Amino acid sequence: MTIPLRIGLAGLGTVGAGVAKILANQADVIGKRAGGSVVVTAVCARSKSKDRGVDLSAFEWFDDPVALATSDAIDVFVELVGGSEGPANDAVTAALKAGKHVVTANKALVALHGATLAPLAEQAGVALNYEAAVAGGIPVIKAIREGLAGNEISRVSGILNGTCNYILTEMEATGRAFDDVLADAQKLGYAEADPSFDVGGIDAAHKLAILASLAFGVTLDFDGLYVEGIEAISAADIDFAKELGYKIRLLGIAARHGAGIEQRVHPVLVPVTSPLAAVTSVVNAVAIEGSAVGSVVLEGPGAGEGPTASAVVGDIIDIARGLVVAPFGILSKDLQPSVTTPIAERVGSYYLRINATDRAGSMAEITKALAEASVSIERIIQSSEPVDAGRLPVVIITHDTQEKAIENALRLLNEHDDVLDQPMMIRVERD
Ligand code: NDP
Ligand code: HSE
Predict the structure, then answer these.
(1) What are phi and psi of 368, to 5 degrees?
(2) Which end of the chain is less crowded, N or C, counting CB atoms within 10 A of the terminal residue's CB?
(3) Nearest Cα residue to 132 out of 165, 162, 161, 104
(4) Is the pLDDT of residue 184 over 90?
(5) Which residue's CA is the closest to the ligand 1 atom numbered 20?
(6) Which ligand is nearest to the CA of 80?
(7) pLDDT of 1 strictly over 70
(8) CA 147, CA 207: separation in Å to the nearest integer?
(9) Protein residue closest via CA to atom 7 of ligand 2
(10) pTM exceeds 0.90 for this model
């Protein structure tokens, strides 16, 4: 490896400024661990005059990420601009074609264009490292790709979006409104430039697609993934879940079933006694089931300046040490096509909240509709507090049933005069 290793940093926002700070403040120890000094030589952002809380005056300034990516002044291009299209994709592609190592935190880019970018890195014999793209400061990519490489992995699941976990657990703890808590997450630097990617489940889906490809040796299948966000979760759902002994979390689940792979992101009810119920704030947790190791659970901060920059710097040090592995653990040409199983095949328990007319017999009509769809009830509660005049919430936890049966039950309920709004359905995960 060239010494010093020269870094070009594109993007000087939450993560980029964090990386510049670590490389400046920890230069001695990083140099020792890397086997030689690691220095930023050039940077790029939109605004040259913005104060980033770190001295950038010694670095060459670029307005254009692609020009930086191909500059002779750098050995490693670090992409922290964001977005799956435009400058991030153009610059990473240009860097790999120019034979530069690349480090990125951009899950959207890796999930949507990893299939094109990884072969470019493999052909050039350079690294395409993206540890920070999944679960922030948790080294889950290295855990699956390196530490657990001797295992056949059957399941990867967990809390993959810090913003959603922060929102859900703040609402749970303080009763604050969704929009208020989201605004906090944005101020803290947790949320994506477009926060609908967080609350809509898309960011977690980008991460799950990456984890599934690494864990199961299959091609990325972001488009085949089932995705639901947390936008429809209300304070009432959080309260009812609590009354029933559950908490609400946004989970990503990828599991192998024969030839198919289940890949889904959606809110779930988890028992209040489960380890995931104890994961609060911006913390992420990922559970990996391996054939030899058994169950491994990794937990830590999933977003924000320090944790994300920590992962980026770890990737840079790997390059300085001369560690270059195929981006998805095996060569792109050896990845198998992904066969994603439809969500309708899920079997499990469901939470239903139905706002019904406040009249004798409406409960009987609801249970009749469920019986017609062959959905069996495990628990049922009727609130004595109407949502508003004439609307009473009925909350049900079902026994295990096929998702198809729940879809049928929801259709029957929707047709019913006693059901006043679209019923709320949240899947229950007890494992
Ligand atoms: P920010 O919005 O804070 O920073 C983006 C940076 O990119 C800014 O410095 C901006 O410049 C620069 N930029 C944007 N467009 C251009 C352009 N066309 N040309 C040059 N520079 C440009 O984002 P984050 O730091 O939060 O995120 C960066 C990446 O890291 C994203 O891919 C994100 O998904 C990922 N990530 C973020 C985490 C987090 O907790 N924030 C965690 C894990 C991953 P300027 O400052 O001048 O506007
Ligand atoms: N917006 C992302 C999150 C950043 O909240 O998890 C970390 O990937």
Answers:
(1) -65, -45
(2) C
(3) 104
(4) yes
(5) 45
(6) 1
(7) no
(8) 19
(9) 303
(10) yes
Residue with tokens 């990884």: 118
Which of 131, 161, 194 maximizes ligand 2 atoms within 8 Å of its Cβ, making it the mutation to test the pocket?
161
Q: Is the pLDDT assigned to residue 385 strictly greater than 90?
A: no
pLDDT level of residue 386 (50, 70, 90 thresholds): low
Exposed e or buried b per residue across 373-394, where buried means at least 16 C-beta atoms within 10 angstroms of its C-beta: bebeeeeeeebeeebeeeebbb
> Ligand 2 in contact with 163 (CB < 6 A)?
yes
Ligand 1 pocket: which residues have CB below 6 Å?
11-16, 44-47, 50, 65, 80-82, 87, 105-107, 132, 136, 189-190, 192-193, 303-304, 308
User: Helix or strand or coil: residue 422?
Assistant: coil
- What pLDDT is stored for residue 189 in this prediction? 96
HSE-CB of 176 using CA atoms within 13 angstroms: 14
**Is residue 297 within 8 Å of 84, Cβ to Cβ?**
no
Q: How far is CA 148 from CA 155, 212, 332, in A?
A: 13, 14, 19
Q: Is 207 a catalytic residue?
A: yes
| Residue 53 near residue 76, CB atoms below 8 Å | no
β-pair partners for 39: 6
Q: To the nearest 10°, the Cα dihedral for 350, 353, 357, 362?
A: 20
Rounded to an integer, what distance in angstroms lies between the CA atom of residue 27 and that of residue 21? 10
Confidence at 387, pLDDT banded by 50, 70, 90: low
Q: Which residues pair with 419 in a beta bridge?
A: 356
- Given a cut of 90, whether residue 259 has pLDDT beyond it is no
Tell whether the model's pLDDT for residue 394 goes beyond 90: yes
Check residue 116 and give its pLDDT.
Answer: 98
Rounded CA separation 30/27 (Å): 5
DSSP 76-136: EEEE-S--SSTHHHHHHHHHHHTT-EEEE--HHHHHHHHHHHHHHHHHHT--EE-GGGTTT
Tell me, what amino acid is at 146?
E
Q: Among residues of the chain, what percentage have pLDDT more than 70? A: 99
Residue recorded with tokens 């977690």? 204
